[in-house]
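Question (not urgent): is this output format expected?
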Amino acid sequence: MAHIFTGCAAAGKGQPLRRFEFDAGELGPEQVEVAVEYCGICHSDLSMLDNDWGMTQYPIVPGHEVIGKVVATGPQAKGVQVGQRVGIGWSSGSCLACRQCLSGDLHLCSAAEGTIVHRHGGFADRVRVQWPWAVPLPDGLDPAKAGPLMCGGITVFSPLLLAGVKPTDRVGVVGIGGLGHMAVRFLSKWGCEVYAFTSSDAKREEIERMGAHHVVNSRDAARMKSLAHTLDFIMVTVNVPLDWKAIIHTLAPRGRLHFVGAVLEPVPVEVFSLIGSQRVISGSPTGSPAVMATMLEFCARHGIMPITEVFPMSQVNEALDHLRAGKARYRIVLENSSKL
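Got this back:
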């Protein structure tokens, strides 16, 4: 029996996305099938479309910030029911048997399956994932805006738990874009004193409305120097080289510089800048299904949603061009329709 899904796929690097039908095969015993209502666009979709990471298999249907309703479940699927609205992020499966999975760190499973790695994702009418990765959406969250939480949101939320960030901490967010604007909102509601680092003063008032207590121009050497040894935690959301020495210098003793942005160039570090103050440099990917559920509950409780722009999925190429041009404010969501 054929299970034909319809999506938007790129046939090769640099090629536009076009209507694409594919046979999804039989539903796996642990899988759930989700009818896609909305799907966010992430920079990782661009990286996969361009094969920046050397693991893209064409044709590729991108999309890993999915919001939709469960329409079918395999016989071994648990935790979700047909008709339930769920969110799906970067991961679509894990082994459930290794030490990482059994410890709750399913996202660190060495056999973890990426939603758009060697399989088709959410720029489609339907998508399938292993049941733990279909995370129920709490009441009160707008499904039209929630998609970016499933990848971008969890990427900046999970470090708060990983690093043990406290409400009394002074924290910094470097880069106030798709990831950074959500980090500011999370940290503000977490109770922290938030410093937003940006290379431009043009967004100062907007960033303050997001919840930042201080907006710092990272190119202002005097201002950066004035913050020496004051910040307990800094989250880096950009993927470009910066003056890392100046940023590390703002960390207090035992402060942590944490990377979630995929900076592709090596980060130079003077070891004595770490040793003398017991500073830490770390990084993390997304998060486990349990942490994703915690994040969604936190968002529902505090009314946190990403700032989004909506395109119909039939205009996916225009939406991708908008993102490539750096015009997105701050995340793009595709709304599904029957006109793929």
